[in-house]
């Protein structure tokens, strides 16, 4: 005797159970939500001073400050000559020996990177000059 397959048995074997797939999707969703909440971007908040009518800070003409210019392409200039980042410390030490009370003033272009300012500030600290200031970029009219 041959057994005939019923129509109901044929339908049961063709169905796919989606429950395990949904479980995996929900577990992955929970994982990404939990890990995304722990990721924090490290940034530095910079408070720029407001434009005031106070006298301007020291510039190149002021001989009492050690002025370091940073151009838009991150070139460093001291005493009207281009200086490599590796020789900034030696130059600051030399000028500081001549003017012991002189602060270091960094005149940075608006398009220069903060990495150069940090390198100049570190070089000044290595040269035992702890009074380092950053001038805001000049506003072109």
UniProtKB/TrEMBL annotation:
Record membrane topology: Single-pass membrane protein; Single-pass type II membrane protein
Domain of life of the source: Bacteria
Transmembrane portions of the chain: 21-39
GO BP term, pick one: protein transport
Localization of this protein: Cell membrane
UniProt keyword terms in alphabetical order: Cell membrane, Membrane, Protein transport, Transmembrane, Transmembrane helix, Transport
Key word Transport present: yes
Any one GO molecular-function label of the UniProt entry: transmembrane transporter activity
UniProt GO cellular component terms: plasma membrane
Main localisation: membrane
InterPro entries assigned: ExbD (IPR003400)
PANTHER family: BIOPOLYMER TRANSPORT PROTEIN EXBD2 (PTHR30558:SF13), EXBD MEMBRANE COMPONENT OF PMF-DRIVEN MACROMOLECULE IMPORT SYSTEM (PTHR30558)
Family that this chain belongs to: Belongs to the ExbD/TolR family.
The protein, known as: Biopolymer transporter ExbD
The organism of origin for this protein: Pseudomaricurvus hydrocarbonicus
């Amino acid at each position: 005797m041959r057994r005939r397959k019923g129509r109901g048995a044929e339908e049961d074997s063709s169905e796919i159970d989606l429950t395990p797939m949904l479980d995996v999707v929900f577990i992955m969703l929970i994982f990404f939500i939990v890990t995304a909440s722990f990721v924090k971007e490290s940034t530095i908040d910079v408070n720029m001073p407001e434009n005031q009518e106070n006298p301007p800070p020291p510039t190149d003409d002021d001989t009492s400050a050690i002025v370091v210019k940073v151009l838009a392409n991150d070139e460093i200039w001291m005493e009207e000559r281009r200086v490599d980042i590796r020789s900034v410390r030696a130059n600051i030490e030399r000028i500081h020996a001549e003017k012991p009370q002189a602060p270091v003033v960094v005149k940075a272009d608006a398009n220069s990177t903060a990495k150069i300012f940090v390198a100049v500030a570190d070089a000044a600290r290595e040269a035992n000059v702890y009074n380092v200031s950053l001038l805001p970029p000049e506003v072109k009219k």
